[in-house]
Design goal:
The chain is an all-alpha fold. Helix content is 95%, strand content 0%. The longest helix is centred in the middle third of the chain and has 64 residues.
């Protein structure tokens, strides 16, 4: 092979490499955008999940007030827990 043939092969490989690089770069950009969208979606779902948990806790409280025995025990436990925390705070203030 002569030098011109080698240069031609090298140019072809370089063109192929540059095209491959461009494709990979575009793929990376698309994946970054998708990743950002998924992060936003996850954050929204976590917020919704937290809101649902809070709503569930309030429903449990409401059920306890209506007289369900299982929830009455839960409410008594939570009230006792809150009283203990308040007592601890009062002791710390003394």
């Amino acid at each position: 092979m002569d030098i011109e043939g080698l240069l031609t092969q090298l140019k072809e490989k370089l063109v192929t490499l540059l095209a491959s690089h461009k494709d990979r770069k575009q793929t990376i950009m698309m994946l970054k955008e998708e990743n950002q969208k998924l992060k936003q979606k996850l954050k929204k779902q976590q917020t919704v999940n937290l809101e649902l948990k809070e709503a569930n806790e309030w429903l449990k409280v409401a059920n306890a007030m209506l007289g369900d025995k299982a929830y009455k025990k839960l409410m008594k436990y939570k009230i006792n827990l809150l009283v203990r925390r308040i007592d601890q705070c009062i002791d710390q203030l003394k």
